[in-house]
Amino acid sequence: MTVALEIAVTSPAGALVARDAGADRVELCVGLELGGLTPSQALVEATHETGIPAHALVRCRPGGFTYDDDELALMEREVRTVLRSGAAGVVVGALRPDRSLDEDTLRRFVDAARSVSAHAEVTLHRAVDHAADPVATAARLAGLGVTRVLTSGGAANAPAGADTIARMVDAAGPVQVMAGAGIRPDDVAALVATGIAAVHLSAKRPVDATGHGGVPMGSGDDGSAHTVTDAGVVAAARRALDAA
Predict the structure, then answer these.
(1) Which residue numbers in the chain have pLDDT < 70?
(2) Alpha carbon 118 to its chain's center
(3) Distances (CA, A) of 80 to 23, 63, 109
(4) Burial grade of 26 (CB within 10 A; 0-12, 13-18, 19 or more)
(5) pTM of the model
(6) Domain with 217 in it: what CATH number?
(7) Contact 180, 126 (CB under 8 A)
(8) CB 58 within 8 A of CB 100
(9) What total number of domains does the chain contain?
């Protein structure tokens, strides 16, 4: 089985770097430092024009994965919007207060996606790693119309969660399991051995910034550099996958 390489990007420029360095697809979001948030319609359109398949994250706010009715209605609309704007798929997820998978919401997102395109792919994001039992959650996905699940195996990073990821592969059946979080190219071979269908990297590097001159733009603004997609990291991950 060929293991796919997915790169998380926040711009069309990042998508181009990922494409040219050997990625198979990208996950598109904004606010990567917050875990990722829904990209704008224009950002999805511009990234689609690069030619690499882009799966848009649909997450209306940072924080946990239990949402109220207004948030769910907004994300359902965002699912349709990003797909109409050229996304090849969506990346979604929701949990109940008891940290079980919110299957009703996931079905709602899947139905919204397939109402736009019968071929739209749907990925369950790392909400699965906040679930009470990631392996049991993976076992429930086959009947929900989900294409794949992105996971660190419930650990802080995918290499640390490799044993759980292997169990999730066994439990998920036809649903693809994609390892992500804290992956370096040197980790790829060991993760491929778990039976995963894809690896997911942010492959980012900081860009020097002049700072904000002591006038922060928000509580999370420390004046540090923003990040861009590193072609060297993407290419190294591609080589590691090809050699695995």
Answers:
(1) 1, 208-225
(2) 21
(3) 25, 23, 9
(4) buried
(5) 0.93
(6) 3.20.20.380
(7) yes
(8) no
(9) 1
